[in-house]
Amino acid sequence: MNKLSESIIFSFFISLVMVVLDAIYHLATETAVHINYVAVKFTIIFLVVFLVAYWVGKSPTEGIFTSIAGPVIFYAYYIFANPTLNRELFKIDENFGYIFVHIAALLIAYFLIYRIWMLKKGPQIVKSLAYAFIISLCIYGLDAAFQLSYVQFTTHNEEEAAKVLDFTASAYLLGLLFALSFLSYHFIRNKNVQMAVLVFGSAVVIYFLGNSLIRSLAGFAGSSLLVYLAKNYMAKK
Amino acid sequence: MNQKTKFVASAIISGIIGAIYTFTPYKTLKNVLNLGFGLRHNDHVMIGIIALIIAIVSFYKIIRMKK
User: Which one of A66, A75, B61, B63 counts the least CB within 10 Å of its CB?
Assistant: First the structure.
């Protein structure tokens, strides 16, 4: 795999984990998780992580620079762009203090994935836990993105879409996905069976919690992509 | 053109584009500078922010090249 694809996949995982960690914080503190802002946040963080990884490299120093530069640039977007959500109805993460939340989320995401990327030796249990944490957050992130975009496209109402995600439901889904990822990665030795269990298991978990076949199919597609990238790339590094 | 010159040029050019699109008021950009291209204000800011990201990372690359 060449440097370009490597940097794109590395940045994709970091940005997704960062955005999901941040979204969970927002759900827990009743701040709106809004598809437009999530998309802008993902784009900005992805570009910063990608350009630094591709032009400069991947290291703890680059991780610290990325973790500070990304949220500061995102804050600049908030200051200069026009608001699209009614601030009387929704509280969003536009205050200065949220920069620190974003920096913390990006630092966690960068160092977790950087360690997993470079982790060749070490206890299997730590690798399994870290892998399960990353993959469950990513599967949840793609499912949440699907739910937000689906409501946005069907209702054309941003305020409806901003109310879709709920902390309790998200916590149950994340917990189940984490358990599934950990058990499949830690106890199943055959890689193909491991991937199949994780992909089908994720689709089943999403179906039973969401009670929606279309969401389950989207979860199947999203988890297939993530598991394929993780197994064929992250595991080999 | 060596690598350092490329990154210096990239930092300066994208820095100027980024500053124009991010910090200039919408009406000035559209009516005075004629750089609106029929886009909304938030699209201009997004273009400006992307250019600023390129400028900042290019600048960071130049600093890292010196070490």
Answer: B63
| Residue A67 DSSP code | H
What one-character-per-residue DSSP string does A205-232 give? HHHHHH--HHHHHHHHHHHHHHHHHHHH
Record the pTM.
Answer: 0.90
Domain boundaries, chain B: 3-64
Candidates B7, B49, B60; nearest CB to A73: B49
Q: For residues B5 and B11, what is the distance between their CA atoms, to the nearest angstrom?
A: 10
Instruction: Give A35's Cβ-side CA count (13 Å radius).
Output: 21
Q: Distance between CA atoms of A144 and A133, rounded to whole angstroms?
A: 16
SS3 for B13-53 is: HHHHHHHHHHHCCHHHHHHHCCCCCCCCHHHHHHHHHHHHH
The per-residue pLDDT for range A205-218, each reduced to its tens digit, is: 999 888 888 989 99
User: Tokens for A109?
Assistant: 């995401």
Give the torsion sign (CA, A104, A140, B53, B33).
negative
B18 in reach of chain A (CB within 8 A): no
Alpha carbons A38 and A228: distance in angstroms, whole number: 24
The size of the A-B interface in CB pairs under 8 A is 47
Alpha-carbon distance A218 to A199, whole Å? 11
Q: How far is A125 from chain B (nearest CA, A)?
A: 36
